User: Fold these one by one.
Assistant:
Number 1:
Amino acid sequence: MGEQLTLADAAATRRLGADLATLLLGEGPRLLLLRGDLGAGKTCLVQGLAQELGIAEPITSPTFALAQHYRGQLAGRSTHLVHLDLYRLEQPEAADELFAQEEEEALAQEAVLAVEWPERLSVTPAPAWQVHLLIDADGRLARVQAPGEPEAIASRNAST
């Protein structure tokens, strides 16, 4: 994919999440790393992802719970989503530990693992899909990087 997209509104952000769901259910990693400032649309993107996975329950930011687990049905088969938010974990060791636990569970369930604030980890997990959401005058910009593609996302700490 390796491209930059303009997302005019929340509906467009959810559509990008739905498009990514199809890719995440294909061959390859089921790991999605989401970067962006507060309010950039990370949880909104996960809502579109969840809808495409057949998950009916409301998707909210797991900032205080740190992780949310969801089940859905898609084409007669169970789907699973683990939504992880590392924002409150300022120590890389704590973020690494939680990520390792949730990754193990996601692998066991064949779940999609969506991680907000992966920059809190000591090392960027690979292979993974990556999306960097930026607030723009026209809505949002999304930079999407497929697993194995050269770095398409601005530096880990970029805010613009």
Note: Residues 152-160 have pLDDT under 50 and may be disordered.
Number 2:
Amino acid sequence: MYIVAIGWLYVTLLIAVNEPSVVAGIVSFLFYGLLPCSLLLWLGGTKTRRQRRAHRELLANQRLNNGDRGDTGTNQ
């Protein structure tokens, strides 16, 4: 997915360089390249973000449960 994003940004950068003015180049790069590409990458990473959050919550619950044993050591 990243190679498609890199290719798309390269093509839109070349299009932006060929615009008649600097402002038109910046606007075309933002609206045809950067914004759609960032939206694509953000939507594509939704599953990964959800899995990472679930994993962090699982680890936090495990730490909470492991710390719940009190003073049941062998020295008592």
Note: The helical segments are 2-17, 22-44, 46-66.
Number 3:
Amino acid sequence: MSARAVSLKKHLPAVFAIGLLVAPGIAACVPDSSAPGGTIAANDPCSSQRSQLTAIGDYFNQAMIEGAVAGAALGALGGALIGGDWQSAAIGAGVGAVGGAVAGYYSAKAEANTDRTQLVGGVYKDLYSENQQIDRTTAAFRGVRACRTAEANGIRADYKAGRISADEARGRLAAVKTKFEWEVQYAEEVGGKMNERGQEYTYAATEISHFEPGTRTPTTAAASGANYQVTGPVLTRVASKSTRVRELPSTSSRQIGGLKAGEIVEAREVTGVSGGWMRVRLADGTPGFVSASLLVTQDRYRGDTAAVASRAEPQTAAPPPQSAGGVVQLAETNQIKQRALADDVSESRTMLSSTTFELDQPLTLAPLGAVDPAA
């Protein structure tokens, strides 16, 4: 046995320890609750909404690190075998953690469910649970944003009515902004963890798609239309006639609602996809996409106008079947929903850099109607 092998055998526990130390670093961190905006008083008007957001976010911050830990440990061992030193072990641990995090979930499921039918059913169940949790997280974040916007508007109303001074109003608005900055950062971290888990599920769905002949592999973001970019300022537009609101900027995408002629919506331009599209919000805060040709400026619309009242249509369709194709479909749906949350967070970043939390006229990005975070 070579001296290198003897040394490696002697220090094998340390090699695996390196892997176990590296792997937790793969998990996303959440904002420190002691940081500015992190602590929240019991009398904060948005304490309930924040509690809902952080409670649901904990689901995603329970990182699926089993695969990362195993991958890191094996990567550390492989690095040490190849390089023969602890630096190689550390590098191997990092690479193994990344690879293990992607394939680890499926590997663990396949090991626990040697029967293919059970394996498909187990992954399907996890994906369906993930689907519901993404919906709850998105609704909770929209609830937080609506509450913070309403809080800021209330402070401005108090100032305009002479109930508080300008200095007090500015101080209170700054405090609201600080709290919302923490909440936006929290949502960003949760979104990052969603995406990591999404990669694991997509890997699993790809492997499972090979079980049944004719089952396609999960569609990539680019192919599904989820690689769009929402750009530019928030614009006020009017629906020139009744029109469909779609989940993605594509005529083949699922319809999630509609606008009536004369409804005024907040809209932003969409790039990165063919055809002209704009992203709008329905009254319940649900984002969707409308053909830009069907939205006009208020001065060009000749009929009566009104604030948007349309809401997302209830999704009564049955979930996909518990099959390889159903697993693929759920993985793709979750990918779309993850992108919708990312768009919400991005728009909220725009709020933080706008006059929303100033005494000036605010930029309204919150839903125009009430939001039920538990929806």
Note: The two ends are 64 Å apart (CA to CA).
